[in-house]
Amino acid sequence: MRSPILIGAVCLILAEFLFAGVGALVKYLSEFLSQSQLVFFRNFFALLILLPWLIKNGPAGLKTNHFGLHMFRSVTGLVAMYCFFYVLANMHLASAMMALLTAPFIVPLIARLWLKERITLITSAAMLIGFMGVALVLKPNSGSVNIFIVLALFCACLVAINKCSIRKLSSTEPSARIVFYFTGVGTIISFFPVFFDWRQIELQHWLLISLMGGMAAIGQLLMTKAFQLASPVQIGLLTYSSVIFAAVLGFHFWQEPVSSGLLFGTVLIVVAANMALRQRWL
């Protein structure tokens, strides 16, 4: 029988591959659509992917004793999405993903305070190595403050809270319900700003918009399943696999350079993730 931690790790890596693809689509479509449109359609098309689940389960599938926590997760996730889409439009893809993905190193701290999960010495060492890797990638070229990195780091704190809320919800809630609430609430809230920030959408972009939503929904389901099978402390560092995918996509589509800082930083991240994954938990 396969270890739940291993299966959770595979689910998370697949999810991050899809999220890197979503990031690339957002970056490309930002040239033609407003941020409000991108956030709304990302949620709307993801919601369409989840409608068969709602039809199958009916209103009973949405019944929950944790409505407040669902709302908290949805709102923090939506704010993070607005911030990150703005960052993606203004930074190299891999660097933007790396800035956001300081979240896995914030997760153990939040999981300790909120979920009362143990942080081992190995996890602490992995966090330190991981932050060193982040510093290598995000080292500014000048002494000035990069507002986009600051915004991405703020977004990372929200994402870390979001991931721990998934862990909290997953003890009683199925994956599809967690994702449906997130996507449904996000669609409703993000619908209204679209009226004030509308741009004409060309026919060829509709396919990419729908693909973005579908990939986001599947990625959310995989990520939620991953954190149901394993603690964020155990597999959260594997979220950094998306940086590798983003670097490949950024180089291929935008000729974004793969810097030595990105390479060495990614190596450190892989080492940190490996240290965390090799631990033995209950």
Structure, explained:
By secondary structure, the protein is mainly α. It is 77% helix and 0% strand. It has 12 helices and no strands. The chain is globular and about 45 Å long. The model has no long low-confidence stretch (mean pLDDT 82).
Give me the secondary-structure topology.
Blueprint: H1 4-29, H2 35-57, H3 67-88, H4 93-100, H5 103-115, H6 121-138, H7 147-169, H8 175-194, H9 203-229, H10 232-235, H11 241-254, H12 260-277
Helix pairs in contact: 1-9, 1-11, 2-3, 2-8, 2-9, 3-7, 3-8, 4-11, 5-6, 5-7, 6-12, 8-9
**N→C terminal distance:** 16 Å
Task: List how many beta strands DSSP finds.
Answer: 0
Instruction: Name the beta content range.
Output: under 5%
Indicate the radius of gyration in whole angstroms.
18 Å
Summarize the structure.
This protein is mainly α and 282 residues long. The chain has helices at 4-29, 35-57, 67-88, 93-100, 103-115, 121-138, 147-169, 175-194, 203-229, 232-235, 241-254, 260-277.
What are the defining features of this structure?
0% strand, globular, 282 residues, mainly alpha
